């Protein structure tokens, strides 16, 4: 199975699918092609949330503002999965997540614990502006056909000792409060923070302070009236600012990158 | 085969696909993921129109404003199909349609005639806000693997004697007139009514009154000039208010829920 | 394999998928369903760019402003591919492209060189407004099941000696200048011209005049600063007006159909 992720909109993903189908009979599954254009961080967040639900697969990821420059092209074995995409950080958080879930013994070093990065040998692609089609799709097909344990046997994949990392900001969680920030806003308008949902344990049905205002804590959206705001634990496990049948980002007046303060007493 | 329908936009459907692929090799086909958010009625309309064209399949449907509340989770056998989704009415019209097409003897009662509802046993899902991923996708995979005739053999499906219904308003059709309402507007701007297309039989090329104004009746859009409005029979079999190479809803000034009066003499 | 292309948005493509799945087990791959509505020329451009990357397949194409009129329905063998859609020009450019790549001997006439057009026999379809579902999807399934070399053996496909052509305007390329026009603008805002990229050979890192203003020529977007404009060779092989991390169409102030003048000295 090969999954596809990009910021291409339409119809460029279809050219990648054509190349994949010309090289392999692998099943193709779209993750999304409408990530905010050139937004490496948002894409990295969603890949980390979504890809771990898949069985072992090859994941083709092309959000690539540096296409055609000298940024490297990567294939990363992460646990039983392979990630293929540009070396700009977009693959790093999900690689850690997949390796944690399927990794080796705890005392292994990072590589043997589940992450093996390779640089893809790029040999004069047809275009300098569409490596998704001309570099990454062929590499993903090759990785799929080789199999997750056999990348090192392919001349096209050269072991590398590093790649660009990307870390999400850490929240500060105290006994009676927590500070963090809005990481992403989803299509419903739910504002997803980096604060772990565990801070709301035992508080459903109560109220807490969010940026100084009292807000109900609810298990899910429809536990408050239509249009009313709430804080809940989203499907990603983090605290989420939401509004029942409305947009949390607009109701709370927050956007990506905004700081957020929660106080529980 | 498992089809997927939601109002999730992107990328949440991919998490459901991951769960499905982890549980089954069934073929996956997207119906749509951009239905108006939390709009049970519009989704129910389109499911009724689209799903009957499929061969027997399991249909995963998640338009679920009550996620995380005590609304039940349903698996409904309807003819040779299985529908999986929340108990909010979204499955009811298509269940009737599928049962009518593939049902048992006319004197059977509803259940044996083709509709068998089951309540899905929900056992502490990972999240309270994403039952599409944590409840309905696993249930759809289970239903597919069990097979349409074997739901009752699964502990996870408990026969139930009722579920929430949803009925579209009935039109009033006389010998020279008809009154109804706009059920949905499609992406082209065609305003789809609940008036059966049969009222236009024999009138193509003529004009009728629509809300008091004379409008041409045409077999299809391009039978009138570009920009001109028309009434026709849409692909769903109902009267549709349209404009050639334009938007019918804007040209007629109508929207979902508006009453509509047709007069033929 | 059957690919699907339309301007339907959602959820009408799903009805076509249902019909296809009811007639064939062929793999289905979406090209795009969000082409500008009724825009035959833009769709024809993208099909010509994308479909040649696919292995031999049947391609179902429904951008069909004349649905329900007497325009013909076509199945065209083009090289090892089959194209199915309305006779309005949308299939013509890609048919030539596919035939060129996989065609017969150079001295063959057009038909034996790789293009064989057939008219689809249309026998009282269920609707006059959705031939994608009622005419073209069944025909695509039939063509797939028959196989690319066996269309003539099907009663439903009648050889025809002509169909509507569509040609993109030709650029005028001199030794020190070129004039052309903007053919399409992609989702990133890149303005794609009809001027062949070869005019930029050897000029990367230099500047040329675009409509009288000096603009850098770059191999790819990130070779100029964020927000800065550039001319490059797009993945289609043509000159493209772009902006790094911005929209080329807005930065240059151009749109589809606008003339463009390049001067190199």
TrEMBL record, chains A, B, C:
Domain S-adenosyl-l-methionine hydroxide adenosyltransferase C-terminal: 180-261
Domain S-adenosyl-l-methionine hydroxide adenosyltransferase N-terminal: 2-144
UniProt cross-references to Pfam families, sorted A to Z: SAM_HAT_C, SAM_HAT_N
Keywords in alphabetical order: S-adenosyl-L-methionine
Species per Swiss-Prot/TrEMBL record: Halococcus saccharolyticus DSM 5350
Family of the protein in this entry: Belongs to the SAM hydrolase / SAM-dependent halogenase family.
Superkingdom of source: Archaea
Protein's name in the database: NAD operon protein
């Amino acid at each position: 199975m090969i999954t596809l992720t990009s910021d291409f909109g339409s119809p460029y993903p279809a050219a990648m699918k054509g190349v994949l189908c010309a090289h392999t009979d692998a099943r193709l599954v779209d993750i999304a092609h409408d990530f905010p254009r050139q937004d490496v961080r948002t894409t990295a967040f969603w890949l980390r949330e979504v890809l771990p639900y898949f069985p072992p697969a090859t994941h083709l990821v092309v959000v690539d503002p540096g296409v055609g420059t000298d940024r490297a092209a990567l294939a990363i074995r992460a646990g039983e999965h392979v990630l293929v995409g540009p070396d700009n950080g977009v693959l790093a958080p999900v690689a850690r997540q997949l390796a944690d879930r399927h990794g080796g013994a705890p005392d292994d070093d990072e590589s043997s614990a589940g992450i093996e990065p390779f640089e893809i040998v790029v040999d004069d692609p047809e275009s300098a502006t569409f490596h998704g089609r001309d570099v990454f799709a062929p590499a993903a097909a090759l990785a799929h056909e080789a199999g997750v344990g056999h990348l090192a046997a392919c001349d096209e994949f050269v072991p590398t000792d590093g790649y660009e990392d990307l870390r999400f900001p850490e929240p500060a969680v105290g006994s009676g409060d927590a500070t963090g920030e809005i990481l992403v806003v989803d299509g419903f308008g739910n504002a997803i923070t980096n604060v772990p949902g565990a801070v709301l344990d035992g508080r459903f049905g109560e109220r807490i302070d969010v940026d100084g205002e009292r807000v109900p804590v609810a298990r899910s959206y429809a536990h408050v009236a239509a249009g009313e705001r709430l804080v809940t634990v989203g499907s990603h496990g983090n605290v989420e600012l939401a509004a029942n049948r409305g947009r949390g980002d607009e109701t709370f007046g927050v956007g990506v990158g905004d700081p957020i303060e929660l106080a529980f007493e």
